[in-house]
Amino acid sequence: MKLRLSPQTLLVLDAFLEQAEEWKYGYDLSRVTGLKSGTLYPILMRLAERKLLETEWETSEPGKPPRHMYRFTPEGLRIARAHVRAHADSRLGQVALGLVQVGQVQG
Amino acid sequence: MAAPRKLAARLLKAVVRLAPRESREWASAMLHELDFIGGDWAALFWALGSTAAIVRHAASVGLAWLKRKTREELTMDNMGKKVKGVGLGAISALMLVGCAFAVLRISGILFPGLDLEHAEWTRWLAVIVIPEAIFVAAAVILWRKKGPVAAGILTTALMVGLHVAVHLAMR
Prior knowledge:
The complex is a heterodimer of chains A (107) and B (171). Chain A is mainly α. Chain A has helices spanning 7-17, 26-33, 37-49, 74-106; strands at 24-25, 53-57, 68-72. A 3-stranded antiparallel beta sheet of chain A has the order 1-3-2.
């Protein structure tokens, strides 16, 4: 499955990969990633539409409002790990290339 | 409750009420998160961002629906054109067969002495050989540009041919 990996999407994937089995809340994700709700929710919606995220309403205690929670599906977890790894590899490759070029200039 | 938070809650409640079915759960999720946001202004900015997200989502859902609908209508339109083409071909072919019969009858009236109407060979020629040759020629010519019309003509040609074959067999 092809995912549009914007820097913001990568931030969200990273946030979900931290303790991936745990449910996460929208506002908490917003704080962790530093993304505003207008940026965060379209990403969550897209991931959920592609069945990479599962969503659930928290069964709340009386007097406490229910919250919408999000967690990777097994498929989502697999794809997110692969994408984040591929992205990290390409970043590493770019850094290595940069170092080689710097070395050539200095040499 | 401070004014910005009150405004945020009102805005998101309105969004939940007005959002299309596909976006409503998300709007509701954004509204419920409001209670966990510390600052009043942060709550208002949260509501504004959420509203923008829901508007975009609703627009994309609407656009997808419109695209699907347009595609369906185009397909229906194409299907309608094909059916019309086949019908036109069949009607043209039947009219030709009718004309062939009429010519045969008229020739019988105009030249009673030749007895063309009852001669076997004239019947074969006028009702079968010439019309079928015209059908095949027309179908070949029309096949590329007006495929459905050609299909209609060929179908009728086949039906007429079968009819004649059955007629001959019965005799």
